[in-house]
């Protein structure tokens, strides 16, 4: 099941660039909300909850922090879910994992190195962050060729605003 087209690639690249720029700038102004691309296999209607596990393969480590927009305080208890395509099978349960952020907002998930799809689409991971007090964020992170890890800062907006 493939659904990322050229527009998905452009959105994903823009999201990845904004995530990198936000994380690199530091300070309170860096805590602007992560823009959700709303893209990914969730749009197809995932039928079951993702497995709660921090390891679903080896070769690539995705880690980072989840922060609150504005004041940069860590978000404890956010669910960080990843989903990547399983070669030859599409988006299936074995390519999913989720963890809950700790008191510092930190998360870490280890899985296989994401592979590119046909048509020139490079390896990517779909990431969704949920918490009952914040708006959901769903982004696509494109993996640099030869990379074995990424560290992201994802910033959530208070659902009451």
Characterization of this structure:
By secondary structure, this protein is mostly beta strands. The chain has a single domain, classed as Aromatic compound dioxygenase (Protocatechuate 3,4-Dioxygenase, subunit A). The protein contains one helix and seven strands, in the order H-E-E-E-E-E-E-E. The strands form two sheets. Strands 3-2-5-6 form a four-stranded antiparallel β-sheet. Strand 5 and strand 6 form a beta hairpin. The N terminus is likely disordered.
Q: How would you sum up this structure in a few lines?
A:
With 161 residues, this protein is mainly beta. It has one helix at 6-25, and strands spanning 59-68, 79-83, 96-100, 106-112, 124-131, 134-142, 149-156.
Features:
mainly beta, four-stranded antiparallel beta sheet, Protocatechuate 3,4-Dioxygenase, subunit A, 1 helix, globular, 7 strands, 161 residues, 12% helix
Can you say what the CATH homologous superfamily is? Aromatic compound dioxygenase
- State the CATH topology: Protocatechuate 3,4-Dioxygenase, subunit A
Supply the CATH class: Mainly Beta
User: How would you sum up the major sheet?
Assistant: 4 strands, antiparallel
Helical residue percent? 10-25%
Mean of residue pLDDT values: 78
How many β-strand stretches? Answer: 7
Number of helices: 1
Ranges where pLDDT stays below 50 over 5 or more residues in a row are 1-28
Question: Separation of termini?
Answer: 36 Å
Structural class: mainly beta
Please state how the strands of the largest beta sheet are arranged side by side.
3-2-5-6
Q: How does CATH name the architecture?
A: Sandwich
Radius of gyration: 15 Å
> Secondary-structure element sequence?
HEEEEEEE
């Amino acid at each position: 099941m493939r659904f990322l087209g050229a527009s998905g690639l452009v959105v994903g690249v823009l999201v990845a660039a904004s995530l990198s720029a936000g994380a690199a700038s530091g300070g309170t102004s860096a805590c602007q909300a992560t823009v959700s691309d709303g893209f990914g296999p969730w749009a197809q209607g995932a039928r079951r909850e993702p497995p709660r596990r921090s390891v679903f393969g080896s070769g690539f480590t995705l880690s980072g922090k989840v922060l609150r927009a504005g004041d940069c305080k860590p978000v404890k208890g956010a669910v960080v879910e990843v989903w990547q395509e399983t070669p030859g099978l599409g988006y299936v349960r074995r390519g999913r994992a989720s963890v809950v952020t700790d008191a510092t907002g930190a998360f870490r998930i280890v899985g296989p190195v994401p592979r590119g799809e046909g048509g020139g689409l490079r390896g990517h991971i779909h990431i969704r962050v949920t918490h009952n007090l914040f708006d959901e964020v769903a982004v696509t992170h494109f993996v640099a060729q030869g990379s074995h890890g990424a560290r992201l800062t994802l910033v959530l907006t208070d659902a009451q605003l």
